Amino acid sequence: MRNNNRAKRAIVLLSGGLDSAVTLAVAGKQGYDCYCLIFDYGQRHKREISSAKKIAVAAGCDYRLVKIQFPWKGSSLLDDRIKITQSVAARRSGDIPSTYVPARNIIFLSFAISYAEAINASAVFIGAHQEDYSGYPDCRSEFFRAFRPVVAAGTRTGVQKGNIRIVTPLIDKGKSRIIKLGQRLGVDFKLTWSCYGGGKRPCGKCDSCYYRAKGFKEAGLKDPLL
Amino acid sequence: MRNNNRAKRAIVLLSGGLDSAVTLAVAGKQGYDCYCLIFDYGQRHKREISSAKKIAVAAGCDYRLVKIQFPWKGSSLLDDRIKITQSVAARRSGDIPSTYVPARNIIFLSFAISYAEAINASAVFIGAHQEDYSGYPDCRSEFFRAFRPVVAAGTRTGVQKGNIRIVTPLIDKGKSRIIKLGQRLGVDFKLTWSCYGGGKRPCGKCDSCYYRAKGFKEAGLKDPLL
Fold this sequence. Notes:
By secondary structure, chain A is an alpha/beta fold.
């Protein structure tokens, strides 16, 4: 049953990975009527997209797909010619992994805010977390804190109805805590997809596979994809 | 001749209207090697897009076109069923015009920042101005001021190389001053397109036509499109 109360409508950014699946479950648990937003941005791991759709459907939620063709590259996730580096090595050298997509979360959040305005939602949920592997500047809490005044100053909603909340329920959680939380909330991890490679089964080698495996191990659970 | 110096590369958001054409001329005058960014976002006034391309080519600049399909509406510029209201009336009633597109400039700036990161540019120019007709929250200087910390915290460039400047050279100028400035800089206004309608000639009735005509009149110049 749809909730027309603005206070209880939320946009949830859904990548198809387990973090965003858990985030959707958290938003639902908090009583939000969730509208999922999925991006097809030319990522190598297209499988993510079908996973995201399945996760939305399993949760009984509407979803919208935004297609973006980046007319520039600058990331190994968009460009076959750039090698997918291991973030562990990148972090040791103080660098940011090659999988960083220029300004990706700024763009994704912007679309989420637009969608929130269009359907009169009061919150946007995003499953970013600053621990673990990413080393991405746009997954840190200081980035999300900085984004809030933009919405307050730069949107009709912010000016007329009060701000749209940007909610990051996983921001300080590690992978194993996220997995345990998801299990408690009944997330079907079989529907999620994490691998950066484009294969039919997880490659087991990329950062995303590595941290997923580590997370399940530390949580004392078995990954249903393996 | 291409300038490889980061400090002198800029992204210029180009709509095809006269404000962004003047902004491109300003950036060029300041010595920037300009890379234009044009959006096809389902706007009624498609003619804008071909105008933008012509303006970029006339200035000898590269351009990139980003296609966005908004899977939601919420604006008369995207939805034929919503009447294009006159902003003068809207402003009198304290409202925001129906032509407001949810979070449009947040989205456009986000792509510009991504492009800047991908080609290692140090500045983004946008021709927004808060005077005159718009009444759009995302054309105000407080919005642009709020955006800067997002870039500083949320991008690889911001973290590693110093911020990407967001430059709004027209922010406090009225239409007639913008037109006079463009004339001094040699902008060919015949290439620009302002009308919100989708016709072959300016409708003469929409806000954009109204303020353009007023601007030319106050500048003591003739609009070459009429």
